[in-house]
Amino acid sequence: MKLPVDPPVEPMLAKSVPQIPTDAGMTYEPKWDGFRCIVFRDGDEVELASRGGKTLTRYFPDVVAQARRQLPTRCAVDGEIIIIRRDGPDGRPRLDFDRLSQRIHPAASRVRMLAETTPADFVAFDLLAIDDESLMDQPYPVRRARLTAALAKVAPPIHVTQVTSDVDTARRWFEIFEGAGLDGLIAKGADLPYAPGKRLMFKVKHTRTADVVVAGFRWHKSGPVVGSLLLGLYDDAGVLHHVGVCASFTAARRAELVEELAPYRENVTGHPWTHGDHSAGQRIPGGQSRWSGGKNLEWEALRPELVAEVGYDAMEDDRFRHTARFLRWRPDRDPRSCTYDQLDRPVRYDVDEVLRGDPAATPEGTVR
Known about the structure:
Blueprint lengths: L12 E4 L10 E5 L3 E8 L2 E5 L11 H10 L3 E9 L1 E2 L8 E2 L1 H5 L6 H10 L3 E10 L2 E2 L5 H11 L7 E3 L2 E2 L2 H10 L7 E5 L10 E7 L2 E12 L6 E9 L5 E7 L4 H11 L38 E13 L2 E2 L2 E2 L4 E5 L21 H6 L9 E2 L1
Parallel strand pairs: 1-13, 8-10
Antiparallel strand pairs: 2-12, 3-4, 3-5, 5-8, 6-7, 8-9, 11-21, 12-13, 14-15, 14-17, 15-16, 17-20, 18-19
């Protein structure tokens, strides 16, 4: 390519903060839950670059085609590749990271099939270069103005993310957009240049806790220590579902867990997962997933009598979206009380309205 900014370029990153920053001149935008991607276009040549210099080009021919059709002839645009699910149980369109992850497949035939059956959208939120001009040293408001001008005529599945400089609007977005599958908020300072690989932006994500049943574990690949705890929740019918794992432990803590779990490995009979029925809708561990590949998915059953408090950020249908964080044991809790009812379920929201900049969610003061 002959752009003033050519791949690979490491995306600018964000630092996690517990609260929404309110510094003067701060700009806020939704945090999209997808694959970060810088689209480089020079005529018919298009490259989709992700973090770490990896390419996404071969996996998303549909995004490449839309970039050729709608983006400026010579440009570098930072954004997010997303997939919108429109056949959910409540009928509201929302982001679907599961289906997005399934797009990463080694077989070219399957890549083509998925591009047709689960096409992706691209949400633009920064402009690095256009024509012969690099904008990376320009402050963010300048880049934003150039982005909106350059992409003024794009149509779905290409979008320009909405932004606001009003903190009250940002707080409302943080609350309601989660129901459309979004991750939280991104905050950018007024004088922010584009600094590849630097954590100069801020991100605010939802954090919650839940009491869960620890009903199994997996051994760590390094040896006879605990690798992860398998977590469960009961539904209204009293069925225990596998909802996720805790896995981030120090080496010393992994060894300690072997001793702590030992009593619960004894006399395990009639375990609800070893005798469970996945075909009947029960979620049980051990099944292949988009992440499993060639991983060993064998697991050890524990009597479902241990309760732990864990931290989590969001739910994906009926399981934890990401690996949960172990906080503490809860010997005071009855395992049967660990139900889905305790979870904070966000109000469902239409992701199309987020992409359109729906007036009901965008009061006066919002910057487009």
